[in-house]
Amino acid sequence: MCTTGSPGPRRGTRRTNLTRTDGAWNGLLLEVGGRPRPGLCLWTAGNRLLLTQATQGAAAIPLLLALVDPHRDGVDFYRTGRYRPLVPPVRAHMARAYDGSPQRWAHHFATLLAGSPDSPLHEGRWVLSPDPLLRRWKHGGVRDGEYWRSLLIEGDPDGYIDWYVHSGSWEIFPLRAMPQADDPRVKAYRKQARDGTLPPVLLWWVSGLDCHLVLDGHARLAAAIAESVEPAVLELRRTVPQDEVASGTERAVETYEAELARFTELRAAQGTRVPDGAEFAGPALARRLHDLRTGLRPTWAWPLPGGVEEWRRIAREQVGEGGWEYV
Predict the structure, then answer these.
(1) Residue 7 reports pLDDT greater than 50
(2) Could you tell me what percent of the chain has a pLDDT over 70?
(3) How many CA atoms lie within 13 A of 102 on its CB side?
(4) 117 beta partners
(5) CA-wise closest residue to 68 among 308, 233, 273
């Protein structure tokens, strides 16, 4: 599912470190203003999607054409292969200096995303997390290489994202063809994969496709798979809007206070053997506040000017007549 709407007027990007209840670092909260529309933009036309990438002084480049199955069983796609990486090549000396620190890499990528006109960031609140949802599907006994390879959506240039078989499995969609294990770039990363200094793969969760798009790190992901090690991953996704945070916080606090008042009445009637309620209401409040701060929200998409006919025109231009059955 995608949503549409109008962002507010703030400008710039503010970042805040996120922590777990034990105080351990757990990602970045990015509050973005001054970007009414992103450079890496998702468009909708009926049950069709189009992903484009902005260019300086020229028309946006189509990257991905997608057609959602009428029964919501999956998505047929065509990838143009024209994606330009948002992140400059990560050099070996930087990988050594960062020494596998997810926090340092998160700040590095956040700076690049905020400064790039081609990034998917637009006004609103985002989370850049080292704990992507797709990792939670891994079960014991499955080798890392086998598991991460199974998450890759196959098809070049066209293929199918199967929601019926893989519903909620949070697969990975490469924006360009994945390099082979003997590719020179992959070979250069395989040693880093073995010694634990491989930079993270940067993923963007897109709700309209129900999968993660690889923004940066195709070769690094291929290296981790070749070495059968779990890749470091940073997941970019939208989170709860500020107005929803404010109203939700107010309701959560009211619920907390009402629960404490209920326990106070019970203690007055039945004595001190009844707890004061803090041990029950406190953790519930903490969970609600955490969800309000970092909860998952659908990806924004914009109505495609010209609608379905424009989508078809772009598809014919990119694919050619007869090159893809859905043109």
Answers:
(1) no
(2) 93
(3) 19
(4) none
(5) 308
d(CA 303, CA 1): 14
Structural tokens at position 247: 């109203």
Q: What is the pLDDT of residues 195-253, one digit of tens each?
A: 999 999 999 999 999 999 999 999 999 999 999 999 999 999 999 887 776 776 778 67
Q: What sections of the chain are H helices per DSSP?
A: 92-98, 102-115, 144-151, 163-166, 184-195, 218-227, 242-270, 278-294, 307-319
Report the 3 state secondary structure along 50-65: EEEEEECCEEEEEEEE
What's the pTM value of the predicted model, to 2 decimals?
0.86
- Residue recorded with tokens 């070996």: 92
Of all helices (H) and strands (E), which one includes residue 132? none
User: What is the predicted pLDDT for the residue at 325?
Assistant: 86
Residues 6 or more apart whose Cβ sits within 8 Å of residue 29: 15, 16, 17, 18, 125, 126, 127, 239, 293, 294
One-character DSSP codes across 234-258? EEEEEB--HHHHHHHHHHHHHHHHH
Q: In the structure encoding, which two tokens stand for residue 289, read together?
A: 């506040």
Coarse DSSP helix, strand, coil percentages of the chain, rounded to the nearest 5 percent: 35, 30, 35
Torsion of CA 199, 292, 210, 185, to 10 degrees: -10
Q: Is pLDDT above 60 for 62?
A: yes
Helix (H) or strand (E) holding 17: strand 12-19
> 22-48: string of b/e by CB count within 10 Å (b at 16+)?
eeeebbbbbbbbebeebbbbbbbbeeb
* pLDDT tens per residue, range 149-207: 999 999 999 999 999 887 766 799 999 999 999 999 999 999 999 999 999 999 999 99
Which class for 78: exposed (0-12), middle (13-18), buried (19 or more C-beta within 10 A)?
buried
- d(C-alpha 196, C-alpha 230), whole Å: 10
